[in-house]
Structures are given as structure tokens and as C-alpha cells.
Amino acid sequence: MKTIVLVIGANGQLGSVLTQSLREKFGESNVIASDLRPKDNYKGIFETIDATDINRIKEVVVQYQVTQIYHLAAILSAKGEETPLRTWDINMKTLFNVLEVSRLHNIDKVFFPSSIAVFGEGAPLNDTPNNAYLDPATVYGISKAAGENWAQYYFMRYGLDVRSIRYPGVIGYQSLPGGGTTDYAVDIYHKAVLEEKFSCFLKEDATLPMIFMEDAIRATIELMDAPKEDIKVRTSYNIAGISFSPAEVAQEIRKLYPDFQIAYEPDFRQEIADRWPNSIDDTSAMNDWGWKPQFDLTSITATMIQKLKEKYTAGSKNLETAKS
Ligand code: AKB
Q: Would you say the CB of residue 116 lies under 6 angstroms from ligand 1?
């Protein structure tokens, strides 16, 4: 049977890159991007979907005879704390809508992203195991922990093939993150390339699990491609890329930009980071579907700097213009 994919939240940091990769895999005309509104000059099939509206999701699923849904729309950890009840409402309502439409319209596979934000003080800080106790301290984390259990419920009760990954902070040059606690790890590279001083909202030693975009996309596609019987975890899989602190990225950047300057001005996001793991144990993902990261801090830094330089240079005759 032909695979037709619907990506909900296709304008986001991960969504925009994942949509491209899914188009390369399944063909341009078989991947429908959707979000609250199209980006300027968007190329490819795009449908406007507010995922809190179940009827709109249904309409698009029926119109294109969708067989897989990637539900990426969510309010992230830091932004979510501004309006806790709205965050809960949006994150849960959109998930229920996707699960219900998928169940009622016989969708083959659903992807639901979870996050390291599901962990809290009850979990070990180092090499946090897949089945650690979950006591998240942000609304985003609570919604993801609940979402994982609902994903498992839909699998057990209705046989819906929902698969999920707990993403660490995702670092990529292709898109910008919005509203997360790990966002600094993308912003820092933009500032380095623009040769500007970086003000970091986390402390210098705030070590967090991170992953390069290429690894995150590959993990998602490998998980979705894995035979159904290999998927033993129906809540969500830990995946580790690497772990580093702001001071360690700054040190790595200085190998290429020796004058790079960073100031530490921790805000409320530091308290969120304090409760998240330093590192993640991803043995279950490795054993069940062969997960293995490829990028370390040195290769991430080299790629980010090279690609962002190219991007700024192309966008503005040269880097000098980009800086002003
Ligand atoms: C965030 O910082 O909120 C996200 C995440 C780790 O899920 N990047």
C-alpha cells in the first residue's frame, strides 16, 4: 500500500527538516505538510491545520487518504511555563485529536515526540534509564509523560501503532528552536558565526543531553521503519546523542573562533535544566531497533559553523552585511 504522510507542526524546528527528509523518502507528492499557517513562499503540498480542531485533521486525512501521521505540534518547556493551563490544553487536545482520528481512520502508524522533559527529581541524573520514575516539573514535561501513557493505551486498547522518542535538545543549522530550555545550544552557534558575544540563560556547568538534527531525523525514520514486533517500548524510547554544558560548547567554538565571548546570566530556565538528566541511557533503543548516534560535539560544532557561515553569506552578500 502507498504511504501518504501527514506532518502536523511542519513549520517547527524538527518538523521543517523532517518533512524534507520524508519527502526524499516517500516522494514530494506523498507528504503533506501542515501547520497553523504556511511559511512565505512555501514549496510543496501544504494544508492549514489547527490541530485543536479534530474535524480539520479528519478532513485532510480523508482528502489525501493519509496512512501515517507525525504529530509534532506542541508548546515547549520554557514557553509552556508562561501559560500552564493553555499549554496543557493545547498539548493534550492536539494529541487526543490525532489519536482519535488515527484510530477511526485506520492510520497505519503514528509518531508522537516525547522529550527528556518527562524526567524530574525522582530519576537518576546520569545515564537515566528508559524506565526511570517520571515526575516532571514543567507542564510540557507533564503533558509528554501523560502523552506517552496515552500512546501506550491506544496501542494496547485499539492496536494503534503509535511510536515515540524522547528527544534531547535538538541542534541544527536548518531551523530555529522556539521556547525550549535547550535552545541556547543553537543560538550560541549563530552568535559565534556573527562574531557577537553570547549571553547564556543557563549556568556554565549545566550539562544536558543533546542531539544533532541529522541524528534526530535518522532516529525518527529508523524507529518508524522498524518492524512492529521489534518495538517493545510503547511509551517512548530514550535516545542519547551527546551531553555537554555551555562551557564545553564555548570551548569547542573557541577552537575555531578564539575570541568568542560568553556571559552566563541564568534565568528561570536554569531551574528547569536542574531537574533534567545530565545524560541518558538509550540501551533499549539500541537493542530494539539498532539506534546509534553518529555526531559528537566536535563534528556538530564544525558542521554548525560551516553551514551557518554559508547560510549567512548567501542571505546577505557577505558575513559583514549579515552582522549589521
Ligand atoms: C525543550 O527544551 O523544551 C525541548 C525539549 C528538550 O524537549 N528542546
A: yes
Report residue 122 CA to chain centroid gap: 23
Ligand 1 atom, smallest distance to 78 CA: 3
C-alpha cell of residue 282: 538509550
Q: Which of 70, 140, 184, 189 is catalytic?
A: 140
How many domains is the chain built from?
1
64 is catalytic: no
- For ligand 1, say whether the CB of 119 is within 6 Å of any of its atoms: no
Task: Look at residue 130 and tell me if it is in a domain.
Answer: yes
Q: Is residue 264 part of a domain?
A: no
> Which residue has a Cα nearest atom 1 of ligand 1?
180
Query: CATH number for the domain including 86?
Result: 3.40.50.720
Q: Is residue 323 part of a domain?
A: no
pTM of the entire predicted model: 0.96
In a domain, 290, yes or no: yes
Counting ligand 1 atoms within 8 A of each CB, the residue from 81, 114, 115, 201 with the most, and so the one to mutate, is: 115
At 315 the pLDDT is: 79
pLDDT of residue 317: 47
pLDDT along the chain (324 residues), means of 10: 96 98 98 96 96 98 98 98 98 98 98 98 98 98 98 98 98 96 98 98 98 98 98 98 97 98 98 98 98 98 98 71 46
**The three cell numbers locating residue 107:** 492510520
Query: 44 is in which domain, residue-wise?
Result: 5-169+213-240+279-294
DSSP string for 216-250: HHHHHHHHHHS-GGG---SS-EE---EEE-HHHHH
- Measure CA of the first residue to CA of the last residue in the chain; give whole Å: 52
Distance CA(226)–CA(8), nearest Å, equals: 22
Which of 171, 181, 207, 220 maximizes ligand 1 atoms within 8 Å of its Cβ, making it the mutation to test the pocket? 181
